[in-house]
Amino acid sequence: KVRSLEQQYQDITAAFSVSAKHVAFSASVFTGGAQGYIGPFNTETVLVFRHVATNTGNAYNPNTGIFSAPVRGVYHFEFYLHGHGHASHPAAASLIKNGQLIFTAFEGQPSYSVNSSNGVILLLESGDVVFVRLWQNARIYDTVNHHTTFSGHLLFPM
């Protein structure tokens, strides 16, 4: 079947609009008001980063803490955790893609401030989800200085 010129033009336009998609977000846990600890919990818990510095493309949901890839492409993510040292509660969380653990950030010591972080580049399909999950029995801390953050952006569409 031969496609009309209009149909071919629509296909080309759609291809370029996907390649020009802009996706980037950066958010922290602290939103104002009371600062303090998140955790420990008796189960792994999705961290919700409610203070959004930027959310170009609206792929990050600050109500759920979940990033959903709008287009197939290569994405970069990083997350930073801040905590206060505790003998039993490390600052520990994992980056999760579609329910699968990808990378972990862990720091545990009995006192003083602790900071852990990690980052990754992932090939995502449209609709894949990525989020940060706090470990069971772990805790983090955040303040107006926004130490605990989650960021990501589309490097290029595929």
TrEMBL record:
It is found in: Secreted. GO terms for cellular component: extracellular region. It comes from the Eukaryota. Its main location: secreted. Keywords: Secreted, Signal. The keyword Oxidoreductase does not apply. This is Cerebellin 10.
